[in-house]
Amino acid sequence: MDVLAEALRVSGARGALGVVLKAGGTWGLWLDSSPAAALHVVARGTMWLHLPGEKPLEARAGDAVLLSPDTAHGIAGGSSTTMSPCDRRATDRALTDGSALHLGSTPAQTEVLVLRYEQDPEVSTPVLTSLTRPMHVTSRENTQLRKTVELLTEELAQPQIGTTAAVNSIVDLLLIQFVRVWLARHPDKQPGSWLEAMRDPVVRDALACVHARPEHPWTTESLAAATAVSRTTLSRHFRSALGQTPGAYVTQWRMDLASVRLRDTDEPVESISGGVGYASPHAFSRAFRRARGMPPGEYRSGLRKRSQAGDHRQDPSAGAPRAGA
C-alpha cells in the first residue's frame, strides 16, 4: 500500500483553478489569504515571492512554490517591487476562458502559473497543512518538475473538455513532487505533521495496514502485531510523528472515507458503516456524530443541499488573485 497515493486519492485536489500570468517590465501582485493553498509555477523568466517581514525569494524558470492555506503573499518581477491590485474582471475572464492575465509592460519576459489548490474539504487528513512554511522546489532538485510544468502550462492555455479533471491530476502530481523533495531535505521533526509519518518506518507501515484495510477491527495491539513492534513502541512513534494515538488516526481515516462516500454515492448508511469498520450502523452513527457534529444522514443531506445551491468551491474566482493589499 502506497500511503501517500491513497491519501491523495481520497483527499486530493478538488476544483483546482489557475491562470497563466504573463508579465514584463515592473510588475507586482498582492494575494490576500485564502482557505486554499497557493501554488506558483514559473514557466519562463523570474518571479520573486514576497512574504510580510521576510526576505524576498527568487524563483526561476522550472521552479515551483507551494504556500499553505491562509498565507497572504505577493509575487513580483523584482525584490523591491511595490505590489499592485489585480484587475478582478480580467482574472475572472482568464479563469473562465484560459486567456492570459497580463501585468506590467510588453513584451512579457516572465510567465507564471498561478493556481489555487484546495484539498477535499470533507477530508481531515492533513497532507497540505504539514507544509507549514512556503516550500520552493527547483527543477534541479526534481528532474520531473519541468515536464510537469510544461504539461500544466499546455492544459491551462487551452481549456477543453476534461480540463478541470486534468488540472486536478497534474496538481496532485506536483504535490507528490513537493513531498519527495520535502522528505529528501530531512527537515527537523515536526510533531503532528502527517508528512513526518512518511519518514518513520514504524508509523508508515502501520498506516499502510490501516489504509489497505480500513474495515478491519484494528486496535493498537493488532496494529503493533502487524508491524512487528510492541504496543508501547507503536504508540510512542505515533505520538512523535502524528501527535495522536493509533486509535485516533484509525477513527479519523474512517470518518474521512465515510464522509466522501456519503457525499459522492447513494450507498445506504448500513453499507458505509461496514465498509469503514463498524459492526453496526448505530456504532457508526455514534462515532460519526462525535467526529462531524451530526448524524450521517443529516450530513449527507446538508452536503447535497449545498451542492444544489452552489457553494464557493464552484465559484471560479474563489481564491483567485484579488484587489487590495
Write out key terms for the chains shown.
325 residues, alpha+beta, four-stranded antiparallel beta sheet, 12 helices, 44% helix
Low-confidence region ranges: 311-325
The helix-strand sequence is HEEEEEEEHEEEHHHHHHHHHH
**Strand line-up across the major sheet:** 8-1-9-3-6-10
Helix-residue proportion: 40-55%
Distance N to C terminus: 45 Å
Mean pLDDT over the residues: 83
Radius of gyration equals 21 Å
The overall strand count is 10
DSSP strand content: 15-25%
Provide a short characterization of the protein structure.
The chain is α+β, with helices and mostly antiparallel strands and 325 residues long. The protein contains 12 helices and 10 strands. The relative contact order is 0.16.
List strands and helices in order, with pairings:
Blueprint: H1 3-11, E1 17-24, E2 28-31, E3 37-44, E4 46-50, E5 57-60, E6 64-67, E7 73-76, H2 88-97, E8 101-104, E9 110-117, E10 135-137, H3 145-157, H4 163-185, H5 194-198, H6 201-212, H7 220-226, H8 231-242, H9 246-264, H10 269-275, H11 281-292, H12 296-309
Parallel strand pairs: 1-8
Antiparallel strand pairs: 1-9, 2-7, 3-6, 3-9, 4-5, 4-7, 6-10
Task: Give an overview in words.
The chain has 325 residues and is an alpha+beta fold. Helix content is 44%, strand content 16%. It has twelve helices and ten strands. A six-stranded mixed beta sheet has the order 8-1-9-3-6-10. A four-stranded antiparallel beta sheet has the order 2-7-4-5, with no helix packed on it. A hairpin with a 6-residue loop joins strand 4 and strand 5 (57-60). Helix 3 (145-157) packs antiparallel against helix 4, helix 7 crosses helix 8 (231-242) and helix 10 packs across helix 11 (281-292). It is globular and about 65 Å long. Residues 311-325 have low confidence and may be disordered.
